[in-house]
Design goal:
mainly alpha; Na+/H+ antiporter like fold; 4-stranded antiparallel sheet; 6 domains; 8 strands
């Protein structure tokens, strides 16, 4: 009978939880505070019903709440993994990395400091061992962000403040639980109590948890593409992951399961969106939001129900000890916030944290369900002295109630007092522009809707008048706030453009015109560009954009493998990836130029839009140059990839057409399924990327050269025997001006740039360079460097002379090419000299 009653009790709690949300909003209190109060009330009512002699009718259901069939370990095992995992999925990890040092200090160092302060403050008065006092300090050191973040969102506090609090709470659970396990083992005599062994065990648990979480996260990342079209399967995989990581780390490897789950969630957060469709990622997040709501509410409610049971033996001495805990915890947090964080900023190890931010973080250190659950675990441990059990239960529970009832009810007025609920100067200055832009669009839309739906003109005019009045009455920016530097507006524009670029890439991923790998690479680059733009404005944006076009470091290693080991596959894949990435980037930049002209100009002003347009044009030119360099290098392969892109776009349009006909009931489900299946089969064929042939076989390379194509095969083989293949990497200096010519170079694939004193000439596949010095016997007249990765055939001076002597037609062709190049150089030199002559 106990199991059905427990299920019914959980269902009843879920009903209460759903009703508490609107009630908390109506009462203008945080839901966590109301959950705690309702939980305490249920606990008190259940105890009264169970032990009152007046009635026995409710004993069975009351016993379920008084003696929960779940112990503390069961509560943590069921609820903690999903809570941690969902939190990491929703965090802006890249933005949080900007405050990584601050978050680490608050999450790890602050836990150690709080444990030490509370333990040392209690030891002289509690009459218990220092280990027991430190154990209590570890239990109450972990913070609960739910109530704090809900307050932030309710009143519009700065986003950075929310990230700091969420990041701290995410990791300090791991630090506090790891420290709790170590101190609990020392208290029960299961492990050594010396500082050195405790510290090494603490570090081992963290490092081991990170390793297991990273490996598990990467495993899921590689599994997600297999179920890319199956949203339910994606959710199922993601739901299983945190439990597998937590159990494997905590019970098999003996390391921190909390750290493991957090690390796995971070990996999925960073790489998951590009491994599934955008709609699938949204669906997964929506499901996880619901799961986390159930888990966080239930764990808080169940823990609160236990509060009367934990406080059953409270006395006046306990109230004095509770006051010591409150003061020590506050002082410890203040020391870290106002002592250590400014020092880190002074040493330039972290970004500055403002005084108002630190004040809110000091007062926002609320405790919640994890603290209560750990305290419950102490009371359940028979190896711990009953006096210590009662000490931990009373003080931990009392401290949680104090933080919820005092901090939770006064945090919102404190935020308003510090002015953190107000818009930033830039947002305030932009507010009137946003209202004007939106109001204009609304007025035009109302007029169009009135005409379309044949609504009388006076009615439409009254609606438009309401909007005009609303805009006129809206609080605008003060003159001081309007005077915002263009530099700041440009930064806002660049971040907006980066966000838009990310949406463009995700749209192509959803429409399957971009591969998962290409989208993942480009999204990472866009994220880096946006982060650097936030930190350094236009200068850092341009630098990040240039870095995004650079060849990856692995390209050098792949090139070495190709040259030394004759393994071409890796290099071919990297070059193919680069072409796809550049193609998608150029397409996105085309859209961004239009977006800037139509949307940004109305919001940030024409001057800022012009500057942004110039930045985008420069980036577009650099991307196009890099793309054309690859196209010159591998024209046939580039055409194949362009054709593949268009095929994907055509399949998406075909699929949309069939879906539209189905939605309009013009075709039935059976016909639609047949048509959709045909599209899927065609898409599977289009997904296969053509193989890039590096073409370093000398005979084939020689035969590809236009000047040798008409020669018989035997003659080509003899010429190829004289040739020496060479693979050039971007930027390679192939020829230096003034040096003695010792070889001629034939371009089989790729592109080079010939740089003279007066001009730059780009040469591609089929061209020859370096032959002029061999024909004339004069020093080199130009510098030549590789624009991209090039397949070259090198002919030494002696072999070049031998080849020219044996083939008069080839000699005439190369001589004519050399004369043409010399004439171009001479003409450019003459033109430059005429420009430099003074006017008479």
């Amino acid at each position: 009978m106990q199991a059905p009653l427990f299920i019914a009790a959980i269902a009843g709690l879920l009903v209460l939880i759903s009703l508490i949300q609107p009630l908390a909003q109506r009462l203008k209190v945080t839901s966590s505070v109301l959950l705690a109060l309702v939980g305490v009330a249920i606990g008190l009512l259940a105890a009264w019903l169970l032990y009152t002699p007046r009635t026995n009718a409710f004993n069975e259901i009351a016993d379920v709440f008084v003696n929960l069939p779940l112990d503390s370990q069961g509560i943590l095992n069921i609820f903690l993994p999903v809570l941690l995992f969902q939190t990491t999925l929703t965090l802006d990890v890249r933005r949080m990395a900007e405050d990584g040092v601050v978050i680490f200090v608050m999450a790890v160092v602050a836990v150690l400091v709080a444990t030490a302060f509370i333990g040392l403050a209690l030891a002289p008065f509690a009459g218990l061992s220092l280990i027991a006092c430190l154990l209590l300090g570890a239990i109450v050191a972990t913070t609960d962000p739910v109530a704090v973040v809900s307050i932030f969102r309710d009143i519009g506090a700065p986003a950075r403040l929310g990230r700091l609090v969420e990041g701290e709470s995410l990791l300090n659970d791991a630090a506090a639980i790891a420290l709790f396990v170590i101190l609990l083992g020392a208290l029960t005599g299961q492990q050594s109590a010396d500082l050195a062994s405790g510290l090494s065990l603490f570090l081992w648990k963290f490092a081991g948890g990170i390793a297991i979480g990273y490996i598990a996260g990467q495993a899921l990342v590689h599994l997600l593409p297999l179920v890319r079209d199956f949203r339910l399967a994606q959710v199922t995989l993601s739901f299983a992951l945190p439990y597998l990581v937590y159990v494997s780390a905590e019970y098999l490897a003996g390391v921190s399961g909390v750290v493991g789950v957090v690390m796995a969630g971070i990996v999925i957060n960073l790489t998951g969106p590009s491994r599934v469709t955008p709609d699938g990622w949204t669906y997964l997040n929506d499901v996880w939001e619901q799961i986390a709501f159930w888990a966080s509410s239930l764990i808080f409610m169940l823990a609160s129900i236990l509060i009367p049971k934990l406080l059953v033996d409270i006395g006046l001495d306990d109230l004095l000890l509770l006051a010591i805990v409150i003061v020590a915890a506050l002082v410890a947090r203040a020391v870290v916030l106002f002592g250590l964080l400014p020092l880190l900023s002074l040493l330039r190890l972290s970004q500055p944290v403002s005084f108002p931010f630190m004040t809110v973080m000091l007062w926002g250190g609320m405790r919640g369900a994890i603290t209560l659950t750990l305290a419950l675990g102490v009371t359940e441990n028979d190896a711990i002295d009953p006096e210590v059990q009662q000490f931990v239960a009373v003080l931990a529970t009392g401290f949680v109630l104090f933080t919820l009832l005092v901090y939770g009810t006064t945090l919102k007025p404190l935020i308003k007092l510090l002015g953190l609920d107000r818009l930033s100067p830039l947002d305030s200055a932009m507010r009137s522009q946003v209202l004007e832009l939106a109001g204009s669009n609304v007025r035009d839309g109302v007029a169009q809707a009135a005409q379309e739906y044949r609504i009388a003109g006076p009615v439409a005019e009254r609606v438009q008048a309401d909007y005009r009045k609303r805009l006129a009455d809206a609080p605008g920016a003060t003159p001081a706030e309007v005077d915002i530097l263009d530099r700041d507006r440009i930064t806002v524009g660049l971040v907006s453009i980066s966000n838009r670029e990310r949406e463009i890439v995700l749209r192509h991923l959803r429409q399957r015109t971009a591969s998962i790998h290409t989208a993942e690479t480009l999204l990472a680059k866009i994220g880096n560009i946006a982060d650097r733009a936030r930190a350094g404005g236009r200068i850092e944006y341009n630098r990040a954009a240039r870095d995004a076009l650079a060849f990856p470091r692995t390209m050098r290693i792949a090139q070495w493998c190709q040259r030394r080991l004759k393994y071409e596959g890796w290099l071919a894949r990297l070059l193919a990836d680069r072409y796809e990435m550049l193609l998608l980037s150029r397409i996105g930049l085309d859209e961004l130029t239009t977006f800037n002209r139509k949307r940004i100009s109305g919001l940030l002003g024409e001057r800022v839009a012009e500057i942004l347009n110039e930045i985008l044009l420069n980036r577009h030119e650099a991307t196009t140059t890099a793309l054309e360099a690859l196209r010159l290098q591998y024209p046939d392969y580039a055409d194949s990839l362009d054709q593949r892109f268009l095929q994907r776009a055509a399949l998406r349009l075909e699929e949309d057409a069939y879906r539209g006909l189905l939605s309009q009931n013009l075709i039935g489900e059976e016909l639609y399924s047949s048509l959709a299946k045909a599209v899927q089969e065609a898409r599977a064929r289009a997904e296969a990327r053509p193989k890039l042939d590096m073409g370093m076989r000398t005979v084939e390379l020689t035969a590809q050269l236009p000047m040798f194509q008409d020669l018989p095969r035997e003659r080509i083989e003899k010429i190829a025997h004289l040739m020496r293949p060479r693979f050039a990497v971007p930027g390679d200096h192939l020829i230096a001006q003034g040096e003695r010519g010792d070889a001629a170079y034939f371009i089989s694939s790729g592109a080079v740039e010939v740089v003279t004193e007066t001009q730059r000439i780009r040469l591609g596949r089929g061209n020859v360079f370096g032959e002029i010095a061999l024909l004339t016997g004069e020093p080199r007249t130009a510098d030549v460097h590789a624009l991209g990765y090039c397949n070259l055939l090198v002919l030494s001076r002696a072999d070049f002379k031998q080849l020219m002597d044996k083939d008069p037609d080839l000699q005439r062709h190369i001589a004519a090419t050399a004369r043409q190049r010399q004439a171009m150089n001479a003409e450019a030199t003459s033109a430059e000299q005429e420009e430099q002559q003074p006017l008479s």
